[in-house]
Amino acid sequence: MKKLLRGLAGLVGFLLLWEVVVQVGLVSKTFTPPPSVVLVTVWDLLGDPEFVRDVVATMLAWLIAIAVAIAIGVPAGLLLGSVPALRTATAAIVEFLRPIPITALVPLVLLVIGSGPDAKIMLAVYASLWPIMFNTIYGMGEIDPVLMETARACGTSRFRILSSVALPQTAPFVFTGVRLSATIALIAVVSVEFLAGSQLGLGSFIIVASTGSVRFDLVLAGTVVAGTLGYLINEGLEQLGKRLFRWSTVDREAIA
């Protein structure tokens, strides 16, 4: 509760400072509307079916992307973490692909599959895959070797060891990777919608608002909604993680 109150106090302070800076004329009201205007615009947009459709399109793409990233990243992390030779063999290609920003891949993806929902989902999967996979690999390294050796000695298959022994032990690490990747996926989806000129989505709404009638209150309102969604996703997953893994200190060891 104290953390929440401190966070709200900081937010209120920021909004008040923003309001004062604009009202005294330090920045232009045209290009930087005050929060009193932006928040009213947000409220109006929440009643606009077209804007709600954009939000739903963004969140649906985000949900699909994070689900696919989990489906790929967790098994890949378990496999690479349990087979050192395979991890060594793939290290070069993984470290080559990992730093590539999604903005550099947007033109290539647009040429190959177009600017539809598939493009933003694919790039969001690419961006959010790495924290999940690497935290899973790290979690594999933290498993007590006795557990693995005992399972092998009992004749348990590799698949059964990974699913019944390794996965439960690495669950806190996996969940932390998912929490980190969730906000990354949202950033990726909105960014691709913005850069690729998607027909639907928050990014599309923002780019249209900034190039059409140049309603900067709409631009900032769309940005505020995107930021709020990101905050709610992260906070929701953080609270869920604390309930599921109260005994774990994985958040302090997470790999971004």
Automatic annotation (TrEMBL):
<keyword id="KW-1133">Transmembrane helix</keyword>
<comment type="similarity">
    <text>Belongs to the binding-protein-dependent transport system permease family.</text>
</comment>
<keyword id="KW-0813">Transport</keyword>
<dbReference type="Pfam" id="PF00528">
    <property type="entry name" value="BPD_transp_1"/>
</dbReference>
<feature type="transmembrane region" description="Helical">
    <location>
        <begin position="216"/>
        <end position="233"/>
    </location>
</feature>
<feature type="transmembrane region" description="Helical">
    <location>
        <begin position="92"/>
        <end position="113"/>
    </location>
</feature>
<dbReference type="InterPro" id="IPR035906">
    <property type="entry name" value="MetI-like_sf"/>
</dbReference>
<keyword id="KW-1003">Cell membrane</keyword>
<keyword id="KW-0812">Transmembrane</keyword>
<protein>
    <submittedName>
        <fullName>ABC transporter permease</fullName>
    </submittedName>
</protein>
<feature type="transmembrane region" description="Helical">
    <location>
        <begin position="119"/>
        <end position="138"/>
    </location>
</feature>
<feature type="domain" description="ABC transmembrane type-1">
    <location>
        <begin position="55"/>
        <end position="237"/>
    </location>
</feature>
<dbReference type="InterPro" id="IPR000515">
    <property type="entry name" value="MetI-like"/>
</dbReference>
<feature type="transmembrane region" description="Helical">
    <location>
        <begin position="184"/>
        <end position="209"/>
    </location>
</feature>
<keyword id="KW-0472">Membrane</keyword>
<feature type="transmembrane region" description="Helical">
    <location>
        <begin position="59"/>
        <end position="80"/>
    </location>
</feature>
